[in-house]
Each structure stands twice: as C-alpha cells, then as structure tokens.
Amino acid sequence: MKSPKSICLLITSLFITSCATLDGPTYSEIPQTIESGKSRVVVLRAPALKGLAWPSHFYVDGKLFAMLNNHGFAYTDVPPGTHVVSTGPQKNPTFRADTVSMEEGKTYFFRLKRGNPDVFFLILPDEAQKMLNNQNFRYQPLKD
Hints:
Elements: H1 4-19, E1 39-45, E2 56-60, E3 63-68, E4 72-78, E5 81-87, E6 96-102, E7 107-113, E8 119-123, H2 125-134, E9 138-139
Parallel strand pairs: 1-7, 4-9
Antiparallel strand pairs: 1-4, 2-3, 2-5, 5-6, 7-8
C-alpha cells in the first residue's frame, strides 16, 4: 500500500507537469515571413524549475504580449522604431524594462529567465535559432 506522502507527491508532480505542457506548433512551423514594413519580436522562455507552474509576463510598449510557460515562445510584428520591452507582474508591467531600436525586416529575440523578479535578455539570432531548434519549444499565443 502506498503511503499518503507518496500519493501526495505523485499528485503534485502530475499537477506541475500538466501545467507546463504545451501543444502549439514549433518555431519552424510558424510563418517566417515578417509583415511588410514591420520588425519581429520573438520571446522565448527557457526551461527552469524555478516558477515552473507560473507563466512569465512579457510586454511591448506597455501592452501584455505573452504569458509564457517553460518551453513557450510567442511572436508579433511591430512597426520599426524605438520600443519599450519589459517584464513584470500585471500590476507593474515595466518592473524590468529596456528600450530597443528595431529596424524594418529584422527579428529581435528575447529570452525570459524566471526569477524573482523575471528578467529578460536580447539574444543573438544564431543563439535563439539553436535554442528553438534543439529544444522542444512550442508556440504559446496570448489567450484573450
């Protein structure tokens, strides 16, 4: 007979892994063409045990753009120019913010790292492509 402690641990493990399961398309399955006259923002959340069951929030110009779980990514096309990208709780979306100048036709990749608070990094396209192609990242659109 299983002990109550073992059963509780099993149920908790199932809950946590089900929260982090994604089933959207992979990066190679999404449209790679950037809308004419736009820049592309791609944000990905690398796997981490810390905060596994909670999504990370990412904003562009103060507007919630993505709520990502482990191995999640999202993308959007924005007008070229200067944009404020940020992460933080919904009560304080610019808790960690940076201004990025974006050129037409280029893709800008950001990696979210779960923490207290979350942080993000602008990463090189080669590094992003390697991460997106070698790990099981799935598209996670923002749900209304």
